[in-house]
Amino acid sequence: MVPLTVLFLLVILAFAVGSAVTLGLVLYAASRRPRPPLPPNARDAWPPSLALPPSPQVPSSARPGPGYPAYNPTNFLSPGDRERIFVLLRAGKKIHAIKLYREVTGAGLREAKDAVEYLERYQ
């Protein structure tokens, strides 16, 4: 007679093998399924919160260098809000400036942080 522990281990082994085989078949079937093509310019517009309006064409001689960001976050601010952010930055209150930028524009934390750092560096 087979001890109960050996029988228990055989049941567990059979379950593990069956699960592994099932997972392998599912992954194989998923890899064989054709994927729908992406719409044109889908990569440029994802995620939607970061999609920026198209910028006007600037002659290559007037374009900034490679270390200069491609957009200006002050385009999304009114002159009064922009000045309030600059006052906070001059006072050394960067976190308050980020909070203000988020309130005014509705941007996410990362986008607001990048925008305020841009304003601190380039303005």
Automatic annotation (TrEMBL):
Question: Under the cellular component aspect of Gene Ontology, which terms does the record hold?
Answer: ribosome
| Domain of life per record | Bacteria
The segments labelled Disordered in the record are 32-78
Q: Does the keyword Ribonucleoprotein apply?
A: yes
Q: Does the keyword Ribonucleoprotein apply?
A: yes
Q: Where is the Large ribosomal subunit protein bL12 C-terminal domain?
A: 92-118
Keywords in alphabetical order = Ribonucleoprotein, Ribosomal protein
Give the protein's recorded name: Ribosomal protein L7/L12
